[in-house]
Design goal:
The chain has about 180 residues and is of the alpha+beta class. Helices cover about 30% and strands about 30% of the residues.
């Protein structure tokens, strides 16, 4: 279940991964800075509604033997910081927060975890993505980051972040056509 994300409504991406459990372990990789930093971004999280979320991305440091960041993402090659606020938290099954600001100006990411035997189904839904290019970049980003998480949890060495992201971004560009408004 390392499939592609799907657009479920305009500006909304849903992507799933079946991960090695137990659920508490996967939860810790979502919420603890040192573990989250191994696949997405480090940073503190105040796990209460209204609490602050900090992400400190360093995509160049996530994997070994990687390509350099493409020129389009040069500004994201080094350390990038992002803030958000917790919208919902029900440990260890649900975590939702704003992505890049408060709810009024940011998008929203939601993580849902469901035990499946000795594995955990992780569903990530990212909503309120305003533009097609943003949807494509976010789709490739989540796909790449979640593959790294799956590899880390399974004890495998993940493929290079930028190498994978670049390939997936081109694939998502083909999979998610730009919506053209019809004249009224």
């Amino acid at each position: 279940m390392n499939g592609y994300g799907v657009v479920t409504s305009p500006g909304t991406l849903r992507i799933e991964r079946l991960l090695p459990g137990p659920i508490e372990r996967v939860w810790s990789y979502l919420t603890e800075s040192d573990k989250r930093g191994q696949w997405l971004a480090s940073g503190e999280m105040d796990l209460r509604v209204g609490g602050r979320v900090e992400h400190v991305f360093n995509n160049n440091e996530l994997t070994e033997q990687d390509d350099p960041a493409p020129p389009k993402y040069a500004a994201h090659a080094g350390e990038v910081r992002m803030q958000g606020k917790i919208i919902a938290t029900e440990p260890p099954r649900l975590l939702s927060y704003t992505w890049g600001g408060d709810f009024a100006d940011g998008s929203e990411v939601r993580f849902e975890l469901t035990p499946r035997g000795d594995q955990v189904l992780l569903v990530v839904t990212h909503r309120r993505l305003a533009a097609h290019d943003e949807l494509i970049g976010v789709s490739a980003g989540w796909h790449t980051h979640l593959d790294i998480l799956a590899d880390r949890l399974a004890g495998r060495t993940p493929a290079g972040f930028w190498k994978t992201h670049t390939r997936l971004e081109a694939e998502y560009q083909q999979r998610i056509p730009e919506m053209v408004e019809q004249p009224s």
